[in-house]
Amino acid sequence: MTATSELLLQVDRAFRTLQVRSPAPPTRFYLNLTQTCQLRCAHCITGAPEKTADGTAQNMTAAVLDALRPHLAHALYVGLTHAGEPMLAPLFVPALQAVKDARAGQPTVVHLLTNGLAMTVERLMEVTALGVNSLSISMDGMSAGSHDLLRVGSRIQQLLPRVEALAQARRDHGLALRMGLACTLHRQNVTELDALVEFAARAGLDWVKLEEMYPINPVAKAAMVDASVM
Description:
Elements: H1 3-16, E1 28-31, E2 40-41, H2 48-54, H3 62-72, E3 77-80, H4 92-103, E4 109-114, H5 121-129, E5 134-138, H6 144-150, E6 151-152, H7 156-173, E7 178-184, H8 193-203, E8 207-211, H9 218-223
Parallel strand pairs: 1-3, 3-4, 4-5, 5-7, 7-8
Antiparallel strand pairs: 2-6
Helix pairs in contact: 3-4
């Protein structure tokens, strides 16, 4: 049995026996590197647009990253999640490097969720070299009347060719990278889901993840899909 298998067995055993403290170290990490975002999504659940605008958005500090370093040696999964746009964080590259150094070539899923604005082909090559092997891009529709309407500051007509270029670069360079789309379901995009999935298939992506709208504010509440139409 490998050391990784033994860790997972310990975690599973602790869960099944209702242990308050696990005898094994954590193996899954979800890191919110920043609350800053260059978009102003009307349905944002983290308040990133407001925090960015008024200057209260916070970033992970070097002290926090240093405290995490010993634990990252056990990281089977690291998710750079969306309190803000991870690629804007001052510690974006240092965090990826810290995971890479700590894991020393051991198998690790490093997942990046991004709005895609800062992700060029050149940056894709950089982040995959730093260990990112799972990439999800937020896309909330196939038209300006759906995606652009809620994801203020993003333009679907710019994002579509960018996603295609990233997928093509993955093929051209043989990158060990899985790619997909994350789509928040709302009233304006329900009729575009077929087109969204067809686009993902043509581009050669690996998944389309559908997420529910949360009524965080009046705009989001009004955009929620009536279950009776599904």
